[in-house]
Hints:
Layout: H1 2-8, E1 9-10, E2 22-23, H2 25-28, E3 33-37, H3 44-56, E4 58-60, E5 67-69, E6 73-77, H4 82-88, H5 93-99, H6 116-131, E7 139-140, H7 142-150, H8 156-169, E8 176-177
Parallel strand pairs: 3-6, 7-8
Antiparallel strand pairs: 1-2, 4-5
Helix pairs in contact: 6-8
Amino acid sequence: NLLEAELFGHVRGAFTGAVATRAGRLEQASGGTLFLDEVGTMSAGLQAKLLRALQEREFERVGDSHSIRVDVRFIAATNSDLEGMVDDGSFRKDLYYRLNVIPIHLPPLRERRDDIPILVKSLLHKLGQQLDPARGEVAFSQEAIRRLMAYDWPGNIRQLENVIERALALPPGRSQIDVG
């Protein structure tokens, strides 16, 4: 499983393409924090291995039997209903309680419309630097901001980011993005 190898690392020969021993994200994050995105999509086997790493503060790389000790703080995120998944047996109850120490509910963007202008400004700066570092600052017109605030954003921040990236790319060279 590539996700497992990415998280836990692997030893040479553990699977096709494993030509060298490699530290995974968990080992690399030792002494710090590891962000786990979309934990609700993990396989049962990966859930069990992650639970052991959380409880015992150790794990084995894929294809290895040698334990590696780590000191990692975990932050987990998901769009899934983990409580429902625990109830239907598709997510481990013990892992859920290990991860759910300080739950933070972040409402969808459609419930935080006043955040949109701030997010737009931040994303414009970030994406502008990534796409064309030499380009000057770009802004959305007031009417464009009003339209962005009126939209429901079913894809939340990721969708907003895609819209901004598209607006920066087509046509290039503008300093203000308007409706139309």
